[in-house]
Specification:
Number of helices: 3
Keywords: Membrane, Transmembrane, Transmembrane helix
Helix content: over 70%
Protein name: Flagellar biosynthesis protein FlhA
Low-confidence stretches: none
Number of strands: 0
Distance between the termini: 6 Å
Organism: Cellulomonas phragmiteti
Radius of gyration: 15 Å
Largest sheet: none
Number of domains: 1
């Protein structure tokens, strides 16, 4: 059974992943809106996909650790 410290770490990791997703989304929108920063759109979309995939793959891992 995980202790309170483990639960805090899981919540902190989920919060970090959500913040990163928002940052990547903002970068993507800025890259799409500003014509000279189209590369920023690509970087933002790639980082968004990687962060979302990591969050999806590790979503249940924290509760199973002892």
């Amino acid at each position: 059974m995980p202790g309170p410290t483990c639960r805090v770490m899981v919540v902190a990791m989920k919060t970090l992943i959500l913040v990163l997703l928002v940052v990547w989304l903002v970068l993507s929108v800025l890259g799409a809106l500003i014509e000279g920063l189209m590369w920023l759109l690509m970087v933002g979309l790639i980082l968004f996909a990687v962060t979302a995939a990591y969050g999806w793959l590790t979503r249940g891992r924290g509760a199973n650790r002892t």
